[in-house]
Automatic annotation (TrEMBL):
It comes from the Bacteria. Transmembrane segments: none annotated. Residues 170-203 are annotated as: Disordered. It comes from Nocardioides panacisoli. This is NAD(P)H nitroreductase.
Amino acid sequence: MHNTQPWRWTADGDGLVRLYVDRGRQLVLEDPAGRNAVISCGAVLDHLVVAAQALGWDGEVVRFPKGPGNDLLAEVRLEQSQPSPTAVDDLEAIRTRQTDRRRYTSWPVPDEVLHALVAEARRRGAHARALDDEVVRFHLERLAERARVLRAADPIAQAELERWVDHSAEDGVPGDVLPSDTDPAVSPPSRFPAGSVHETRTVSSPGDGVIVLGGAFDDRAGWLRTGEALSRIWLRATRDGMSVVPLSLPVEVDAVRHELRKELLRYEFAPHLLVRVGWQAIGREPLPATPRRAVSEVLRTT
């Protein structure tokens, strides 16, 4: 969330890697329960496993080895193996995947593509459902706008968000990846302030798809699985030429999250995150890469 990179790693030199959530990077006002921090860690955990397999290492994951309340989220035991058959594509997807908040084209995401992404999420142990009904999507837009208005009315939370825009050379959301066009007649309102990416295309009818990720409970075990599922959706979508934007705000606001679970999911599962998937214009320039902390800051070897 906001490119806070809330993780710490340790490696013992004998193939055992441990992942911890870094509570010092958890957003106090926007993420008081730590849901988004743990989801972020789940995504980076799955990225590690995919990258390891591409480089010829099998990763056996043990989640919460010291219990769900501990900051140790997972242990990964690496055993040398053969590189995965999709190694080149997998590593390229990890390098190039990004959050692109620019408007999608009107080319719809086919149902079979959306449901394939749902299947990817479920294989990672998360609950997932595509919101492909027009009435449901309209209701979702209303809920998302309600969440945005409620959050915008909290000046302290807004200040926390704005601190993470152009936060540093190593983390945060650079202004040069945020759209400058905030006209609601052209684009849906954003939680972020206007950036410097100019939109030049005319308004197009929405063609994106939305997937809800969640779990049986709104708990840390489910959040970690949701993060792993997000990673798999993101990497597959990137390989297939699609763009992905995680949408956490409707879940962050308690009243909206409860209504989302009741009205749209009919209590099927607890929502943890929404994922928007769509097609960017052919030939569109990629956005600048968002910054990352140095390996020496996030990894301790023993």
